[in-house]
Amino acid sequence: MQISEYRRPAAVSDPHAEAIKTLVDVMRIDFGERFTRAFADAEQLKQLKRRLYAQLKPFDVCDITKGYEDLVRIKPGFIPTIPEITDAVRQAAKLRATKPFVALPKPPRTIKPDFATMRKAIGANTGKSSEA
C-alpha cells in the first residue's frame, strides 16, 4: 500500500506528527504479523513513533513518504530500521533538491491587432466605410 493512498480522517495540526502516524500505520499494513510481533507492547510503538518523529522532523513530509516507499520497494521483505528509514528519507530529500525544475514552454507570441484594417473589414461587412 502506498502512503499517499492512505488517508487518516482527522484535522492535521502538525503535519510531521500526522506523517509519522500514517507511516507507522502503513508499516503495520505492509509487514502485518511481523510488525505486530516486533512492536507488541504499546510503549514500544509509542517509542518508535517518538524516535521517528525526532529523526524525521527536519525533512519535508513528501520526502518522508517518498523515502519510505523507495525503501520498501528496494527491501520489501524486512521491517526497516529507524536508521534505514532516515537514510532513505535523506536520499529522497537530496534527490528532490537536485532535481531540476521543469520550465513551462514559452507562451506563444501574441500579435497586436491592426485596428485600422479591422475597422475597414467591419465597415465593408456592414456596408459602411470608416473613412468618411
Structure description:
- The longest helix has 24 residues, at 15-38.
- The chain has 132 residues and is mostly helical.
- The protein has one domain (3-98).
- 62% of the residues lie in helices and 0% in strands.
- The model has no long low-confidence stretch (mean pLDDT 83).
- The protein is rod-shaped.
Key terms for this structure?
rod-shaped; mainly alpha; 62% helix; single chain; 0% strand; 5 helices; 132 residues
Average the pLDDT over all residues and give the rounded result. Answer: 83
Shape: rod-shaped
**Fraction of residues in H or I helices:** 55-70%
Overall SS class: mainly alpha
Number of helices: 5
- How is the biggest beta sheet arranged? none
Please count the beta strands (DSSP E, at least 2 residues each).
0
Low-confidence stretches: none
Q: Tell me the Rg in angstroms.
A: 28 Å
Order of helices and strands: HHHHH
Distance between the termini: 75 Å
Topology (SSEs and partners):
Elements: H1 15-38, H2 42-56, H3 61-74, H4 82-98, H5 115-126
Helix pairs in contact: 1-2, 1-3, 2-4, 3-4
Summary, kept brief:
The protein is an all-alpha fold and 132 residues long.
